[in-house]
Records
---
Amino acid sequence: MIVSANLQEAARSLLSAKQRTILALIGIVIGIGSVIAMVSVGRIVQDEALRQFKEMGTDILTIEKDFGGSPGGGPSKAPASLKLADVAAIPPACPAVAVVAPSVRGSGEISFAGKRLERAAPMAVTASFLDINKLTIREGRFLSDLDQQSQYCVIGSEVADELTKLGARPLLGSRIRVGTHLLTVIGVTSEVPTGGMRRFEPNEMIYVHITTGLRIFANAELSTIMARVRPGATNDLAREQLAAYFSRLKGPQVRITSPEEIIAQMEKQMQMFTLLLGAIGSISLIVGGVGVMNVMLVSVTERRREIGIRRALGAKRGDIRGQFLIESVILSLVGGLFGIVVGVGASWLIAHFAQWQFSLSLGAILLGVGVSSGVGIFFGFYPARQAALLDPIVALKSD
Amino acid sequence: MLTLRDIRKSYRIGPTEVDVLKGVNLEVQQGELLSIMGQSGCGKSTLMNVIGLLDRPTSGSFMLDGAEVSYTDDDALSEIRNQRIGFVFQQYFLLSRLTALENVALPLIYRSTTGTDHHHRCMDLLKRVGMADRAHHRPNELSGGQQQRVAIARALVGSPSLILADEPTGALDTQVGGEIMDLFKILNAEEGITVVIITHDPGIARQCKRVARMQDGVILP
């Protein structure tokens, strides 16, 4: 009885002060909307990254030379280095591994027809690299094992566009300078969407054969090997065999990373990311909450006499408190519902323009409802308490 | 039913303590129609607040239906107000957002018991005060006299044993005021409800069975 009466009363009171109610609503809508948008965009990005990663295949182990805790960075101080022959011997030695693709990152100035190519990076790979990375060829052909020591290169689609812009016609047969070497383009890889989980940007690469790379790159060292697990074998088995193989070699220390580990790590990072976004959104939510408190305080002041009348007619302090709390919760909940619509809409737009797969996160919606009623209770409590503590006589005498 | 013994009430205004009630003694029997009359500033409003359990006396004893109530806790006082006292105010004090019918039903919201015949009871009371045809009007669509009738229906809805009216005709012209007074007299005579009217108007006081004159914080013997 009292709750339904309070609900009715709250709706009536909020409707009677429309302008004020709408202003407070806007605050809450923006607050909840930004939290929802942030959190659901975070989720969408996370899903998208995972999807791209899984598209690449979850059967690929990455073997890296361990630089003593700082993977991928700093010059090599370890005495031993991986040898190409040892890498080539992995599949026969480890039955669970089907193919390996070692690679070497190069450095050096890259230019075409005397103009520098800023967004291009050289990398030395084997023929298996194309397939293991799910890349395809758009023009010409990829490097083959017959191209050992050759001065051929295959370029990514963006490098190709750049060359075309600089007047390379035909593309195939053009010559790019890498450091002091001239490389002839024999193929172009198809464009892949950016933002994938590869550790390199395929569209900006200049691939040479690994034997060439080891000769022409400064400080070239075999540091990364990708290994595809044979169908039917588990990642764990392949990993065990690889670990055993490398310890038999007595070569450098290696670190073997499985896709599961990378996914777990990614998820952890993404959660942090989502949390951060949510925290940023929460700031606007606090502002919205203060708006609710403000409106409720005004409402309490305006309705002092009403409070006095209700108290005289037998309302207990708790009844008055409940009445105003319900009012602020309704205000915040309505704002929250609109906020959810706005937030979901905003994240849909963002996903649409970034060409990510949109997904509606139920968690975000529950979060919106929960947080908005929480805001209503938290920011409504103080005004409601003020109302409840009013002395009935003072309240009756006020106008 | 009401027994006030040496009720004192003082307020602290700044550094000075102001005594408003200086030892009020009053006894009201069940079924009485009593007016408490006095000039403004004599303390009658404060006395009304004490009797209406809106305010606590500084000292003294106040028995309602044989039970000491002056020092009861706030929630219990609310409950007594809700169950046993019906208020009628000079400015009617209807809630402007509610219809007459909803205003009459207001005290019932604060009862823990749920009732389905609230609607009928409220309509009956509106009929009783001659306002049945205005049940769905809001206060600003009613005249002062009509609003006061609605307020009286509201005071009656909880079947109180005491109706406490503070200058109930103060904002009405003589004729309408007279009608309101007639209503009180009928309620008192026909239903035996105790009515206490606080007023400064000797004309109103004269219509009551008993008049208690108040002056300077005490009731004159």
Note: Chain A has two domains: 2-53+264-397, 80-252.
---
Amino acid sequence: MTFDYAQLVPLVPEIAVLALASILLLVDLWLKDDDKGKNHLIAVFGLVVVIGLTGLVGSEHREIVLNGSYIRDPMSDVLKIAILVISLLSFVYSRDYLRDRGMLVGEFYVLTLCAVLGMMVMVSANSFLTLYLGLELLALSLYALVAFDRDSPSGAEAAMKYFVLGALGSGLLLYGISMLYGASGSLELGPVARAVAWQGADNQVLVFGLVFVVIGIGFKFGAVPFHMWVPDTYQGAPNPVVLFLGSAPKIAAFALAFRLLVDGLGQLHGDWQGMLVILAVISLAVGNIVAIAQTNIKRMLAYSTISHVGFIFLGLLAGTVEGFAAAMFYAIVYALMAAGGFGLLVMMSRQGHEVERLDDLKGLNERDSWQAAMMALVMFSMAGVPPTVGFMAKLLVLDAVISIGFWWLALIAVFFSVIGAFYYLRVVKIIYFDQPEIAGPLVVGTGARFALSFNGLAILFLGIFPASLLAYCQAAFA
Amino acid sequence: MQFALPVLTLCIWLPIVGGLAVLTSGDKSPDVSRWAALGFSVLTFLISLLLWTGFDPASAEMQFVEIAPWIPSFNAWYHLGVDGISMPLIILTTFITILVIIAGWEVIHYKPSQYLAAFLIMEGVMVGVFSALDAVLFYVFWEAMLIPMFIIIGVWGGPNRVYATIKFFLYTFFGSVFMLVALIYMYFKSGSYSILDFQQLPLSLTEQVWIFLAFLAAFAVKVPMWPVHTWLPDAHVEAPTGGSVILAAIMLKIGGYGFLRFSLPITPDASATLDWLVIAMSLIAVVYIGFVALVQQDMKKLIAYSSIAHMGFVTLGFFIAFTIFNRSEAEGGVVLGMAGGMVQMVSHGFISAAMFLCVGVLYDRLHSREISTYGGVIHRMPVFGALMVFFAMANAGLPGTSGFVGEFMVILASFQADFWYAFLAATTLILGAAYTLWMVKRVVYGPVTSDKVAGLRDANGREILVLGTLAIAVLALGVWPDPLVNVMDASIQNLVQHIGVSKIAAGPAAVAALP
């Protein structure tokens, strides 16, 4: 049996990320303590190269390699680039924070890059095993990252909670996958889809497996009622880790859901649609209502994540090409907004104190009006107010939901968005209308300042010209 | 007629770009920001005058149309255009913005560049609302308007500003999201987001009723109509003078404009079926809110309530159309009512702006809006006192001022609909006079009540310039409303023709008695 090395071409970005992680692991050994900043430079430069490589190997065609376990299609190209860009942003945001706390060590970058690799594998998985492999690589790296601040008891507690619930979610997913394997006789998504089409929804084992798969997806997304880990993990983890954990993995989770539910079990759409409706509605309700009661901004954003997951599910459950494109657009846009929101928290919590109370943002406009404007853009975008991209994302999802005749679902969604608007507005209120508790201007590094500006302006630009990103999302499903 | 110059695009984006420029200029030299803001607003006004001069009043077609692809996969277009209904409102917007910028000249000390930038951006966005012919574009402008207003009230407002501004935002947001669902629904019925296509779209009565209610939720909050008006007094009281002026003079008009552009032409049968609801809400606004205004102690609150009552006339003028259809064969009354509503909107734009500016002048001196603080102002401020009395007369609908024209036209039209509508509407002539003149009596006339009032300086040149300009506008529109009425006549005729025809695709027309 000969191995065709041309098969490896679509995997070049993944290989590059792995190589980057390995290089950093080695380089870090020879770096002196006051020279750890080089890690950052190598990681950032490496990611830029990987983004270029992903663009180069991408094309309009789909390729399935490695005996059917790996796929590269337009969707995976777009999602990978989005994941890489968001990860790059989070590196830039976090540099000063990590340096000030002596956490600018190679391990942070190695673990983060392993997580990135895991996400890329998930995005390109074409079999249950590859998918699970990617998922676990991501999850294990994140468990370690949450506890990255060794001296922080709350970090350790968060990591433990995340680990236990994450493992439970993985277990349920794996159990569901084993059912599907038993019923279809294959691990590859293509043959599974054919088997499902042939057996239909009459096969109880198949539907049983589907239930567990949906629960697993719910856990990974943090959808209600499988959301309990989200606020606790966000609260306990160091800010840069929350920034990373709260943004890019949502894109990977979208890929997970899409590969499993649509590529694999597309024929069972009627079955999983109902489940997603329930998950979406209660996620919207719980996420938006509970967020109002939070005083910790990280917890608030955690509940806001949960409500956004509800919107991503709304797009998915439509089951149409427009719906998938809308959900994909939403996932990418959400990652961008979350990166901006958490990025500001990372930037602000430099001088030996962790910004996590809402009150810490008081009077930001007094201290630095440009950063305040960017944060306001992020908040208005999360609330779904035009001309920011958050509105466009919501519009597309609502459009998909109404196109399948679920206009009542659209009404529920907009109703909860109005409730949600309140707590985003409260953040804007705190930034603009309150007097600062800490006087003096905000000290921010050039890199982070640039990153937040890029982030905020991207939100505005995509809101005014959504077609620029939307075209790629729609091409992915054409 | 087609202009090579993209006038509407300029009117939208010039102030927005100008606003961003002013924003980046920072607060190091406030005078530069002020002059730059004034320059941008005057330039925008001058450009918007091209709309008036180049407008063909004989045509009901959309003019100055600009169309370009925006989100192709979504069939949403950057589609702009004006007709006789939206064009006067655009010019009102660009005109009032200049006055607001002048009015805030020496008054705003806290971050003036952000203040001016917010108003300029607001101006562009409001022009966008009036000129958008694509539903997505309209909705984007409609909602985007909230952001600068939210900041204006929240940052430069009074003591209770946070409550007021969040209430304002959430009320409006809540109303409009249902409109969004209705717009998307119609997109799937018609395959396009063009408002003009929506107007031709056949819809069953049930669909129309739901869509009508969704629109009502959005526009009634914006107008605001009783019983969803409660955000307005709060927002007005807390907003800085400039914010109140924009809110009363233009933002409220956007609700009225929405009825003309969306509710009536898109859902004519539902409007005919549910016109009693809107008429009832309008008459309650005229009568009940008139009484509420009578007992106010705060001048701004009083004017805010009077705005609600006056806007009740606007919606009454629009919706008596169907009763007149049922009663007589003449369309004259219908056109009269709608034109009256439009004139009332423009006139109220001038008068309410002037009234809020008058309160602003007093507030800048004594930092109180309470009526009881003042008394005998005219002895110390003769020029200002005269102007304020003039505007109060206009607010009460004195013949010769613009306030009279609109009210008279609407009352005349409602006589053709129903005597009791006219009777209730006409109570405003008494109530409006009562609450406005009583306030004037207590504030302007009488003996000088306190040392504070005794120390008042008369209005300075800047204030006289702003108020004098408005006084001329009020007087001009009052004695010679013809240009305005002519400009919108063709469009209103067209609208009346349109709403007279049932849109229910199959079966007999719901409005059996239609001509």
Note: Chain A touches chain B at residues 365, 369, 380, 385-387, 391, 395-396, 398-399, 402-403, 407, 410-411, 414-415, 417-418, 421-422, 425-426, 428-429, 432-433, 466-467, 470-471, 474 (CB under 8 Å).
---
Amino acid sequence: MQQLKRCFLSFVFFFGLWVLLTGISDPQEIITGAIIACLASSLFWSSTDLWGEVQINPKAILYALIYPFVFAEALIRANLDVARRVIAPSLPINPGIVKVKTKLKSRIGKLILANSITLTPGTLTVETNGENFYIHWIDVTSPDIEEASHQIVQKFEKYLEVIFG
Amino acid sequence: MAVTGAIITLIGSLFLFLGSLGLVRMPDLYNRMQTGTKATTLGSILFLSGLAISQSEFINIDKTIVLILFIVFTNPISSHALARASHFIGIPLTEKTTVDRLAEDEGKE
């Protein structure tokens, strides 16, 4: 079951990339892509154990579809915030490196969480160590671990927890 | 279509400009990285999508999605690696810095 899941997820990934690269105009290309994606995912399923941590259930799929929008909203908001700081003559920054804790257990979940934090301007993952993330924050509102975790991590964690566990 | 695309491209380039302005204005490496590598994320995304919308007969929208995905996956990893390496070799933070938990925890070990 676990093998089938990994196989299926890597197939979806390979095939999706193929479709994005070639387009959906020609059925011959689609069929070739499907066959090659099938072969590749069945040959290499053993080295794709990261996929095993992805949850497949209706709620996880729904959250996976919502997540890009949640992320985009955070990205735009943070971009405007950093842009405002750059323009303001007094340069209102209050930087520091804070420590936050995450509840996520899976490696792929932590990876995506750290990357989401880094991609949002104003926060930058400097180091990760188990459940602790060290984050350079352009405007430290609170050096407290709980409070910083709440402000930086929680908006992403809520969704990633369901998708990756 | 062309006008919409042009407006989106313009907004994107505005973010790219603010990113480069941040490079000049910010006081230390970490804050420069905040603006220099990441204010450009939204900038590049908007720039590429605007280009795809206005030039839709030449550029496929799906190739733009692939480009955006590559930016989204590679950008945070490179900036994380840079920040980690520079903290590791001890590049100082600006005087405005309020707290440095990573240095505190490294000192303990």
Note: Chain B has a mean pLDDT of 80.
